[in-house]
Design goal:
binds xanthosine-5'-monophosphate, alpha/beta, about 45% helix, 5-stranded parallel sheet, 13 helices
Length: about 325
């Protein structure tokens, strides 16, 4: 496999197309892996899915994918994504572990501790599931170039700011060799490769979603009730973005549930409920990001929908902070 990104390759040798990347990478994977079994964690995101599709072309049913529901996915995401994976033809084991994750997280409000617990639980459950598959030799990962850069940077910036649960830990624990076919590509190049592989547009255009999921968007202590409230509010925001034709114009959007309650009034009755913050940013590589100037009319509609339909929420705010100094996620 070429150790060069499209961009480097283009600069040095003329055009490299996604189709050529697919062809050479699949051939290299075939040679590297032979008849070995490979296990891969799917997250519903573009990187892990493109990794799976490349490996599927190279080694077919010797690729075993594991998709863990940590109970912190978007509303109905587990079922929908699992369906799409099966539709693509992937050999995927779905594991529902929401209750176990939420139990471990109960009473914990420190963001780093939450991330670490989710990371540890993920590794444990993934490992348990992988143990059921006999004679696995390789662990495939959807690592892309910015992940590589971040993890080798001597300043260690983002790893120190927030520990990313989905980089590292697993290979050592599982004693497997690592295969990372996308490690020299940028995000936009991964999307081009996905397109060349015939990946459905709904997958390709999906906003980035963090490994710890809604666990870092329910601020402070996570409870099943808070997760359910956030899932509803988030689903309304994302659906409205899609309906207004704004989803594809925004790099990433999210709803965040604040851990404070405030006073409101409905039908002359005083309410005391949670607040939801909406966040929409544009970015190229997630290292910097600018808040999106969503139209007031749109924000007004989403706010009304959320307050009217989501029980437990009486206030909606819009985050107008850019990165830096604010990060994209709130925890
Ligand atoms: P921040 O909040 O650091 O986020 O500005 C930058 C980008 O990274 C995503 N993010 C994560 N992705 N595991 C992931 O896979 C994580 O632990 C994680 N934390 C943040 C975030 O959604 C944004 O796209």
């Amino acid at each position: 496999m070429s150790e060069k990104t499209f961009r480097n390759f283009e600069r040095e040798k003329g055009a490299q197309t996604p189709e050529i990347f697919v062809e050479t990478t699949v051939a290299a994977l075939k040679e590297q892996l032979g008849n070995d079994k490979v296990v891969l964690g799917l997250s519903g995101g573009v990187d892990s899915t493109v990794t799976a599709m490349l490996l599927h072309q190279a080694i077919g049913s010797n690729l075993h994918c594991i998709f863990v529901d940590h109970g912190l996915l978007r509303k109905n995401e587990f079922e929908q994504v699992l369906d799409s994976y099966r539709h693509i033809g992937l050999n995927v084991h779905g594991v529902r572990a929401g209750e176990e994750f939420l139990k471990e997280l109960s009473g914990i409000s420190d963001p780093e501790q939450k991330r670490k617990i989710i990371g540890r639980m993920f590794i444990e459950i993934f490992d348990q599931e992988a143990q059921r598959i006999t004679e696995v030799k390789w662990l495939a990962q959807g690592t892309i170039y910015p992940d590589v850069i971040e993890s080798i940077s001597d300043k260690g910036p983002s790893v120190a700011v927030k520990s990313h649960h989905n980089v590292g830990g697993l290979p050592e624990r599982m004693n497997l060799k690592v295969v990372e076919p996308l490690r020299m590509l940028y995000k936009d190049e991964v999307r081009l490769v996905g397109k060349a592989l015939g990946m459905p547009p709904a997958f390709l255009e999906r906003h980035p979603f963090p490994g710890p999921g809604l666990g870092i968007r329910v601020l402070g202590e996570i409870t099943p009730e808070k997760v359910a409230i956030l899932q509803e509010a988030d689903a309304i925001f994302i659906n409205e973005l899609k309906q207004a034709g704004l989803y594809d114009k925004v790099w990433q959007a999210a709803a965040i549930l604040l851990p404070v309650k405030s006073v409101g009034v409905v039908d002359d009755e005083r309410t005391y409920e949670y607040s939801v913050v909406l966040r929409a940013v544009n970015s190229v590589d997630a290292m910097t990001a600018e808040w999106v100037r969503l139209p007031y009319e749109f924000l007004d509609k989403v706010s009304n929908e959320i307050i009217n339909k989501v029980k437990g929420v009486n206030r909606v705010a819009y985050d107008i902070s850019s990165k830096p100094p604010a990060t994209i996620e709130w925890e």
